[in-house]
Amino acid sequence: MADEFMKGFALFTLGGLGWLTFGGWYRTPSYYDVVQLVNPAEGIESAYGQVGLVAGDAFFWVMVLGALTFWVLIPASRELRDALDDDADGDAAN
Question: Which positions fall inside the DUF7314 domain (predicted)?
Fold first, then answer.
């Protein structure tokens, strides 16, 4: 279970750092505003700006889905598989 935690934590950290970096570059008009990192992007006219916006969104979803996968979905599927195997073993014994 520790390796799943570390894999999820690594994806969470990598995604969070990438999202913060690209959000700071492209979605923060002023560091004195209350709302940062989630503002709509303004003034992006270049292809590099579009790639930066897509990369920021991708890093956000890597952060969310990576942690969810390794912290919730994989352990839940293992518990479900063990429970189903125990039920099958109990039925075979009768």
Answer: 1-86
Residue type, 88: A
The CA-to-CA distance between both ends of the chain, in Å, stands at 33
pTM of the full structure: 0.80
| Residue 85 neighbours by CB distance under 10 Å | 10
Burial of 43 (0-12, 13-18, 19+ CB in 10 A): exposed
Task: Give pLDDT tens digits for 22-42.
Answer: 988 888 887 777 777 778 888
Which secondary structure element, helix H or strand E, spans residue 89, and what is its range?
helix 74-93
Q: What is the DSSP string of 35-71?
A: --SSSPP-S--SHHHHHHHHHHHHHHHHHHHHHHIII
59: closest CA among 8, 15, 12? 15
